[in-house]
Amino acid sequence: MMSLLEYEETYLALGVCVEANVPVILWGPPGQGKTSVIKALAIKADRHLEIILASIREPQDFAGLPSIVNGKMTLVAPDWAQRLADTNSGILFTDEVNTAPPSVQAALLRVCLDKVAGDCELGLDTSVIAAANPPEQAADGWDLAPPLANRFCHLDWSLPLEVVRMGLSGQWPTYDFQKPDAARLARELGNEKLKVSGFLTSRPDLVTALPNSNADQGRAFPTPRSWESAAMLSAFVSATGLSEGVRRLVLKGSVGVAAAAEFITYRNNMDLPDPDQVLAEPDKFTLPSRADQIYVLGAGILNALTRDISTERWHAAGKILEKMVESGHPDMAVSFARQWLKIRPGKETPNTTVLQALVPLLTEAKLI
Amino acid sequence: MSAIDVEKSHAAKLRIMAARILAQARWPYVSTLLYSLKLVESDPQEIPTMAVDTGWRLYYSPDFVMSESAEALATVLLHECMHCMFEHGRRFEALPIAGKRNTIWNYAGDCAINQVLDDAHMPWTEVTPVRYVNIEHQGVDRTMPTEVAYSVMVAYQLEHPEDEQDSDCGSVSGGARRQYELDPDDSDSPANTINQQDNILDSVSSAIISAQNDGEDIPDALARIARDRLEPTLDWKKLLAFNLRSAVSNVAGRRDYTYARPSRRQGAINAAGLKFILPAMRQPQPPCVAIVLDTSGSISDDTLDVYLSEIRGIMNAVGISSGVWVLPCDSKVHEVEKIRSFDVTKVRIKGGGGTDMSVGIHEALRIRPRANIVVTLTDGATPWPETKPVGSIIYLAVLTTKSFASYVPQWMTTVIMEDVSV
Prior knowledge:
The complex is a heterodimer of chains A (368) and B (422). By secondary structure, chain A is α/β, with parallel strands linked by helices.
C-alpha cells in the first residue's frame, strides 16, 4: 500500500503525463478510484473525457471498421473517436488494456502513438490514459506487448488508507496542478534533453535495453522513444516546480526503475564540479552542503588523482580533505585519506595542517 | 556544560566518527548512506544507546559511546544503516493492520539485521544484541520475512503478555515521532528528505550490485535488497500462474480476433446490403498440457514434493479438469501417465540417474492428441533441445536453481522458483 505522500506524488505525476501529452498507464487492482480521479482531472482541466473498456472491445473499435465505399476500403471510426476529434483536446481513458486480446492491443498502438482511430484523427492534443491490472491480478491477463508498453509512462496506483478515510467522509483529496509557462517549459526541455544525452553518452548500453523476462516486457524499459518522453516529463516537473518525488515517478515510469535510478544519480551529481578542475584550483572551490554529494565528489577526485598523479595534484587533494574536516566531516576525510596516503608520489609528506586534522581520528580508530 | 562534559562530548564524537571510518572500511558500498547520517549527541536519560529518526539523524548517548570500542560501535552503525536500507519505517506504515506496535516490529527487524551482521562475523558491543534465538520459542523462524515474524510475535504476545519482547531503534523503524527528535528543519542538522533518501538508497543499491559483479562477497540480504530495489521481480508463483494462464488462453484463443478467415456473421452483413467486413473469432480448442518432471539423482525428495505440489497448482491455475500428462524423466523417460489434480501424490516417480530434459521434451511431443503447452520442472542442470521443435507449442521452464537460467533456450519462457524471504 502507498503512503499519503506517495499517493499525492502519483496523482501529480498522472497530471504531468496528461498535460505533457505522454500516454500514461495506471497499474493497480480494481476498485482503486482510478476512473474517479481521471474524471476529476478532466473536469478540472475542462477537457472532454471518453472512457472505454478495452477488454470488451474488438480490434475494429480502435482500428476502425473496414468498409467498402465506392470500391475503396475505408476504416470507419467509432463514435467516441468522432467526439474526441470534434473537441480536439479531449482525454481518452482505456481501462483494462492488459486483459484485452493481442489483436485489440495492436489496434490500440496506433491510437496511442499517432492519435488516429481508423481514418479519424483525434487531434494531437488528445491525451491518452490507460489502466491495467497487475499480471498476478488479471483474471485472464495477456502480457502488454512490448511495443505498446514502451509508449506509455507506467505508474503504480493504489489507495492509501488515509485517502479512503477522507473519501468516505465525503472529500476525496485532489491536488492542484499548475500549467507551465510555455517559454519556461521550452527552456527546461532544452536543459533536460542535454542532461539525457550527456547521460546516454556515458552509458550507451542504456539507450536501448530490452528487458529479459516476459513480465518486465510489459512495463517500462529504456529506448530512444522512452528517453524522449522521460525528458519531456522531467522538463514539465521542473517547469511547474513539482517535487523531486514526482520527477522520480515519471522517470521510473518512462525508462524503468534501474535506468531511471542511474539517470537520477547522474542528474543530481552533474552539478558537482569537475574533479580535474578542483584539483587544478583547490582554493577556489567550496564543498557542496549535502554529505552524500561531498562523498561522491571526494570519490571522483580520488579517481581523477589515481588516473593522473602529480605532486601538485596530490597536495591539492590534501587541501580538499582539509576542507572536509573544516565542514564537519573529518571521518569522511579519513576514509579518503587512507587511500590518498597509499598513492602518494615518492616520499612526499602531507602538509602539517592536513595531518593535524586527521591524526586524532586515525588514532581513535587505531589505524595508526 | 561543565568542562568535563565538554571533554566527554568531544571524546564521544571522536569515537563515533572513528567507528564510522571502520564501518565504511567494512562495507564501502554503503558509504553515501553511512556519511549521510547526521550525528546528534543526546541525553543518556532519553536514549540509552543509539537511535535514528525518519530523517536519518543518528542520536547517541555519549555514555554508551564511551563505554564501547570503536570496532563494536562500527557494527552498531551498520545496524542502523540497515534499518534505513530495509526501509523498516515505510514497511511498518504499510502493514495493513490496526493497533500496530512498533517496539515489536523493531525487535523483529533487529533480529533480521543482526543475523546479517553475525553472518559477517562482526564484533559486538557489551550490550547484547537481540537475536532470533530469543524469539524462536515464539514460533519465529529466521527465514520469515520481517512482516511475518512480526505477526507471529504479536500473536504470541497476546497469549503471553508477561513475555514482552521489545526494542527501539528510533522512528527510522516505524512509529510516531519520538520526544527527543529534532525538528525536521533543524538548522544544524536538517532531516534528509524522503527524496534524498531514495536517491541515496538507489546509489547504495547500484554500488552493491556493481561490487557484486566485480566479485566482491556481499551479504545475501544486502544483495537481495539492492536487486529488489533496482530490478524488482514478481513472485515466481504469480509469474508461473500468469505465464500458464496466458499460454492456455493463447492456445484456447477463445477471445482473439482474426481477419484471416471471414466472420460467420459476414453473410448477414452482406445480405443486409451493408459493406462492412467483420473479423472472425479464433476457434477455441481445449489445451493439452504436458509436464516433464526432473527425477534425476540431483533432485532431492523435498524438491520432488515441491514439484508435485506445483503440478497441482498448475492444474488449479489453469483450470484443466481433463488432467495433464506427466513425464518423469532423468536421462530417459519413465512411465508417462495422465493425472488429475486429486491424485498428484500417486505419480509413480522413477529415476535417480543422469539428467537430460531434452529427451523428456521430445517424448512430450509424441503425446496424442498433441500437447500445446510443455512445462519442464527441473533444477536446470540439464541439456536442452538444441533447436526449437517444429510446431506452435508453448514451452515453460520452471527452474529451482537460478544460476542455470542462462542455459535455457530463448524460445522457452523461464520462471525461477525462489525461496521467498527477506
